[in-house]
TrEMBL record:
Keywords: Glycoprotein, Hydrolase, Membrane, Transmembrane, Transmembrane helix. It comes from the Eukaryota. Coiled coil: none annotated. The keyword rRNA-binding does not apply. Residues 330-455 form the Sphingomyelin phosphodiesterase C-terminal domain. GO terms for molecular function: hydrolase activity. The chain crosses the membrane at residues 502-523. It comes from Albugo laibachii Nc14. This is Calcineurinlike phosphoesterase putative.
Length: 547
């Protein structure tokens, strides 16, 4: 069948001929019991992490959807949540991580699995990462002097990373494995003109800790408990190291090298440098977010995609300008947060490497066997009326969605894999939150300011207020960062004095118009209108000053 160029453009024809696919799975959080036999028979249930049965089923379906993807990525969190348990021993972490990685690898033996993105649950305790300081990185743009004979110091492996590096011994070559064990980040060639960069995001988290820090806090919690007190964990924006693992330096060098070689790059990681819409807080420390965005902006001609995970939600973050490429967070296989288990197939242009579309596949979970009915849930371009996934297209979608209840509701439902556990997003609070979450903010304050302004705008336009539906119902098991600290929407929305004055003035004007209209309808004059009409100019000024 030929392509009718009269109905479209040569550009559309080219895209049809040169489309590649990237398979993306994330956040399995394998619900692994003491024995593999017991784990294999464990049934899937909403509100729990994914059992082996679910993982096996979704991998079989994914293989049927795309048997040989051009790229195959897994963006971290293999281990189930330790919400109300003591932190795991490293042996347990190692076992679960290896089982999950092996399952992924065995289903797609003929495709290189890119999975060296350590999730916050892939360490013990959660969010921990020992910060080792290896010798300065060699510049990949220079050739080392072979005549000096100087023996270089070899960086020592990182203890947090080596706990799970055994999972990758059959996947990575020697150089890639050493790079991961020392730094936790890596770069892989996808083809001659495309590289995939995997980041170590744990050190940037507001919840990042080391084992020594964790043990110190544990002692403090024990002492507080003896005194009948509760010591809550608080996120931290304080940085002690400007560039942990020299990762920003390394990223800059890799992107500079790619630019010189005429290559494009996909940047992938687990924890995204954004504000999470569910717990309403930035996921990286603000300094690190700003520094990362500065690098991405500087190399906007190289960075073709930014793909992360962690939120258990299929979302986008759209920059306010067109310098950045948009950032995406991926749906999760774990159904802990009452979402449907899901995965993504990204479609990208084989020539420009720009993301053109993504398709989310998933299933509701039944109480009886068969537990799953896997299917295509939605295609982004069709669901949101997009031309592609460029920043320009997504900015247009966001403008359209601002006052479009149908688009907001669709985006909201799609973000959780169309789970029937969700209530409708039919309140001002929910709609404002969903709309504001689409923008790529640097901090919680910016995000909350957007919500406050959007709630006012929607209220003036007559949309109904009320409960936030599903978000409030499941706040106790929301996108948790540390179980002891999830206390809901505690932050006060940020507003400014000029905005408040404008709102007050508009309210008085609206009230006056209503009274005048009622007066015309019923043939009456309000007392205050008669009062003003009978006043002399000098008396009017006195009233205005005391209003």
């Amino acid at each position: 069948m030929g392509i009718n160029l009269e109905d479209g453009s040569k550009e559309n024809a080219r895209k049809l001929y040169h489309k590649k696919k990237m398979l993306h799975l994330s956040d399995v959080h394998l619900n692994y019991t003491k024995s593999e036999v017991g784990s294999a028979t464990k049934k899937p249930v909403y509100g729990e992490d994914a059992p082996l049965m679910l993982l096996d089923s979704i991998l079989l379906y994914a293989r049927a959807v795309v048997s040989k993807p051009d790229i195959f990525i897994y963006t971290g969190d293999s281990v189930y949540h330790s919400m109300n348990l003591p932190h795991f021993e490293e042996a347990k972490i190692r076992e679960i991580h290896k089982t999950n990685t092996h399952k992924l690898r065995e289903m797609f033996k003929d495709v290189k699995l890119i999975a060296t993105m350590t999730g916050n649950s892939d360490a013990t305790p959660e969010y921990s990462m020992e910060i080792t300081h290896p010798v300065p990185l060699p510049d990949p743009n220079t050739v080392p002097d072979q005549k000096t004979g100087t023996e270089k110091l070899k960086p020592l492996p990182n203890p947090t990373l080596t706990a799970t590096s055994g999972s990758f011994k059959d996947i990575l070559n020697k150089e890639e494995l050493e790079q991961f064990e020392q730094y936790g980040y890596n770069v892989y060639p996808a083809d001659e003109k495309l590289i995939v960069i995997t980041l170590n995001t744990a050190p940037y988290s507001i919840w990042h800790t080391t084992k020594a820090e964790y043990e110190e806090k544990e002692e403090a919690r024990k002492e507080a408990k003896k005194a009948n007190k509760v010591l809550l964990e608080e996120p931290s924006d304080i940085i002690s190291i400007e560039d942990p693992f020299h990762q920003f330096l390394w990223l800059t060098q890799i992107l500079e090298k790619a630019r010189k070689e005429g290559k494009k790059a996909y940047i992938c990681g687990h924890i995204p440098p954004i504000v999470d819409s569910w717990c309403e807080i930035h996921q990286w420390k603000r300094y690190y977010i700003k520094r990362y965005r500065k690098i991405v902006k500087e190399y906007s001609d190289v960075v073709a995609a930014q793909i992360f995970a962690h939120l258990h939600s299929q979302e986008m973050r759209i920059p306010s300008n067109t310098f950045h490429s948009p950032l995406f967070s991926a749906a999760a296989i774990s159904q802990l947060y009452w979402n449907n288990p899901a995965f993504i197939v990204w479609e990208y242009d084989a020539i420009t490497y720009e993301l053109h579309d993504f398709v989310v596949h998933g299933s509701n979970i039944s109480h009886t066997n068969p537990f799953f009915e896997w299917k295509e849930l939605f295609r982004a371009t069709e669901a949101y009326g997009l031309k592609d996934l460029s920043t320009k297209s997504l900015q247009a979608f966001r403008r359209e969605a601002e006052l479009n209840d149908t688009l907001i509701e669709r985006y909201y439902r799609n973000s959780k894999g169309q789970s029937y556990n969700q209530n409708a997003c039919d309140t001002v609070k929910c709609r404002a939150g969903v709309f504001c979450s689409m923008r790529w903010w640097n901090s919680r304050d910016e995000y909350m300011n957007c919500i406050a302004n959007q709630e006012i705008k929607l209220t003036i336009l007559g949309q109904k207020a009320g409960r936030a539906g599903h978000v409030e119902e499941h706040k106790a098991t929301s996108r948790i960062l540390l179980p002891a600290t999830e206390d809901g929407h505690s932050g006060k929305p940020v507003s400014t004095i000029p905005e408040t004055c404008v709102i007050v003035c508009l309210t008085f004007i609206l009230l006056g118009v209503i009274i005048l209209v009622l007066g015309k309808i019923f043939g009456m004059e309000a007392r205050w209108t008669r009062y003003f009409k009978g006043r002399r100019p000098g008396e009017m000024k006195t009233i205005e000053r005391t209003r």
